[in-house]
Amino acid sequence: GSPFFITSQDVQIVTVAQKGGNFNSVKAANDYITDASASKVYVVYVGPGIYTEDPIVMKPYVSIIGFIRTSCTLQGSGVAVGDNFITLASYSTVRRLTLTTSTTVNSNIFYFPGGAGMYRIVDCTYGNADKHIYLNTSSIGSLGIIQGSIILNAASFRKHLYATDNGTLQTSVL
Q1: Pairwise CA distance, residues 117 & 32, whole Å
Q2: Which of 8, 30, 116, 139 is 20 to 30 Å from 163 at the Cα level?
Q3: Residues 117-171 pLDDT 10s
């Protein structure tokens, strides 16, 4: 599977690498993108390395894709109690990354706040966090694809997948 591509439209590519990329931070690359749309899709390619990142709020029509998940690690160092490391957006994709946070107290690696549209989390490996994936499913019209999850052996977490409709119904898996 590829990120969201629009027929007859060029994909804008931004690179993150420890040396030689457009950026040396995934958050900085994501923050740089201000004009993503259905007709202007972005892919942030992440090269091998360990990247210490503050929380990232993704934008619609932006994909963050690692080179190989075992060699591309994002560590959420600025993720405090009650924070989300990566807040997903409609039409966003995260793929082939290892992700962990600095706290396991009420912190989430991924949070989807709801909204119409599709998001994808594909081939990711999870480390420390209270919840790896927290989904707000209260919005009609949202579709999530979560595929190929791996949890690190020594990971400290309470829930891998947690879904709620703003508190009325709650479901957790693993």
Answers
A1: 23
A2: 30
A3: 888 999 999 998 888 988 887 666 667 788 888 899 888 888 888 887 766 665 6
